[in-house]
Amino acid sequence: GELKPIIIRHGGSVIDAETPQGLVQADIAVVLSHGSRGLFRGFVGFDDVGKFTVEELAGWLGECKCVILFVCNAGRSDVRRFNNETFGLIERLLRRSVRAVIAPPAPIRFILPPIWLGPFLESIQQGHCIGLAHETANAAVRERFSHPCAWGGLHLFGDSNLSFKPVEQVELAPVESGQNR
């Protein structure tokens, strides 16, 4: 409930659905759910909604530019047995078109996302890159909670230099009457 006003205030829309399918091709997708670990302790999915695989999640979110997962354990990268490759949702998203993922590798307290998200989105709207916005949001959490597990609980994976044009700088091409487009 606390994240909805923050998202709406920053021009986003809230999709309350069983799957994150409605987030396809979003610049920034924010997912909030409980996460779970499987038999070998790796991330296996969301607990709040229907059961689906990590591959299905990556398919639904794989065309977004930046994915923020307020989902316990979603940022885990576990080593596969018999080789040194890592696997998990982060690896799947980065292999698709996602340029940056922010997620906790461990459980995250429910009080942290509302503190973190506002400063992150404000920084993005000012034209800052994902890395700087991530740093700014972590600093906002650190002002309230000095323990590193609080302010350092969300990790950034991928392209920290990803940025978006601030809304005020979007250039619109003039449309002249009488021309076919």
Structure, described:
The longest helix is centred in the last third of the chain and has 15 residues. A hairpin with a 5-residue loop joins strand 2 and strand 3. The protein starts with a helix and ends in a 23-residue tail after the last strand. It is 30% helix and 17% strand. The strands form three sheets. Strands 1-4-7-8 form a four-stranded mixed β-sheet, sandwiched between helices. The protein is of the alpha/beta class and 181 residues long.
Low-confidence stretches: 168-181
Structural class, from secondary structure content? alpha/beta
Biggest sheet, open or closed, and with what strands and sense?
4 strands, mixed
Continuous helix count = 6
Terminus-to-terminus distance: 43 Å
Total strands: 8
The shape, in one word, is globular
Instruction: Quote the beta fraction.
Output: 15-25%
Quick summary:
Helices cover 30% and strands 17% of the residues.
Give the helices and strands, then pairings.
Blueprint: H1 3-9, E1 28-33, E2 35-37, E3 43-46, H2 54-61, E4 66-71, E5 78-79, E6 86-87, H3 89-95, E7 100-103, H4 112-125, H5 130-144, H6 148-151, E8 155-158
Parallel strand pairs: 1-4, 4-7
Antiparallel strand pairs: 2-3, 5-6, 7-8
List its salient traits:
single chain, 181 residues, alpha/beta, 4-stranded mixed sheet, two-stranded antiparallel ribbon, 6 helices, 8 strands, 30% helix, disordered C terminus
